[in-house]
Design brief:
- The chain is of the alpha+beta class.
- It has 2 domains: 166 residues, Ribosomal Protein S5, domain 2, CATH 3.30.230.10; 125 residues, GHMP kinase, C-terminal domain (Alpha-Beta Plaits), CATH 3.30.70.890.
- It is 35% helix and 26% strand.
- It contains 10 helices and 11 strands.
- The strands form 2 sheets. Strands 1, 2, 3, 4, 5, 6 and 11 form a 7-stranded mixed beta sheet that branches.
- The chain is globular and about 55 Å long.
- The protein binds L-homoserine.
- The site of L-homoserine (HSE) has 14 residues, from helix 5.
Length: 299
């Protein structure tokens, strides 16, 4: 049996919604699984030559997690990965790999788990739900962890918004970006984020880009992370000057995400801001992905 799984990029946090909000984006990794004598993975595109090619590959490890949970042994497979989501980018590459592996393991073991159970396993592996939930469900997703289980809901987005992500050539692992955060936050900053997170959701629901621009601000993570990423703060300013309605660090960074009605040079201005800080950058012009990870083809 041979099958292909597609998993989308995601942008988590969306400003104030730290570890809570995430948006699925129309940029997909496609992985074809074929039976093999031993576990192997071959990657083309993003991460080629950098990702593990044997049993330590994240897709293989995630598939093994399914087998461990059901107490069965996983038939070995080869994963042929066509990757479009850059690694360590703030665009959810690890979530896409985890979901791909879990879905593959689930198919190979004849579907012991529902999609909701697969999502719970993905949250366990990722440690926070805000990338894996939209990557699984598509669209804009609000998620929370309750007693180790995820509660996640998709919010319908009432607009055709342009999403521009600019990714600097700068390595910032999520672990490091999380280690930069304070252990305690002030009540004032917590209120800043709670109120704005609710309003960010309302802005997406109503297609209100003006509102999105007023409320997409954060006091819990961006101020600490922006100090680690040369050019990111000026890229955010440049996006606004070029006409973006709202802008945020994408996930834990180092990329920046901008929302706008048209594109009109927003990506180029952000790229120039990164370059002025001495960092090369790539522009991704994307839309929202309304669907999440799924089994695409089975032969
Ligand atoms: N919410 C997570 C963080 C997303 O900001 O650390 C990581 O991609």
């Amino acid at each position: 049996m041979k099958f292909t799984i597609k998993a989308p990029a995601t942008s988590a946090n969306l400003g104030p919604g730290f570890d809570t909000l995430g948006l699925a984006l129309d940029l997909w990794n496609e992985t074809t699984i074929t039976p093999a004598k031993e576990f192997s993975a071959q990657v083309s595109g993003e991460g080629a030559g950098r990702l593990a090619s044997g049993k330590n590959n994240l897709i293989v490890r995630a598939a093994q997690r399914v087998a461990e949970r059901v107490g069965k042994s996983l038939p070995p497979f080869h994963a042929e990965c066509v990757n479009r989501i850059p690694l360590s980018s703030g665009m959810g590459s690890s979530s896409a790999a985890i979901l791909t592996g879990l879905l593959a393991g689930n198919v190979l073991l004849e579907n012991p788990f529902s999609r909701e159970e697969v999502l719970n396993l993905a949250c366990e592996m990722e440690g926070h739900p805000d990338n894996v939930a939209p990557a699984m469900m598509g669209g804009l997703v609000v998620s929370a962890m309750e007693n180790g289980k995820v509660i996640a809901r998709q919010i319908s987005v009432g607009m055709n918004v342009h999403v521009t992500i600019v990714l600097p050539n700068f390595y910032l692992p999520t672990k490091q970006a999380r280690a930069a955060l304070p252990k305690k936050v002030s009540m004032r900053n917590a209120i800043h984020n709670i109120s704005r997170t609710a309003l960010v959701i309302e802005a997406f629901r109503n297609g209100d880009l003006d509102l999105l621009g007023k409320v997409m601000s954060d006091k819990l993570h961006q101020p600490y992370r922006l100090k680690l990423i040369s050019g990111a703060a000026s890229a955010m300013e440049a996006a606004k000057e070029a006409g973006a309605s709202a802008v945020a660090l994408s996930g834990a960074g180092p990329s920046v995400i901008a929302f706008s009605m048209g594109e009109a040079g927003i990506g180029e201005s952000m790229k120039r801001a990164y370059e002025a800080a001495g960092v090369e950058a790539r522009i991704f012009r994307l839309g929202v992905a309304s669907r999440g990870a799924e089994l695409e083809k089975r032969e």
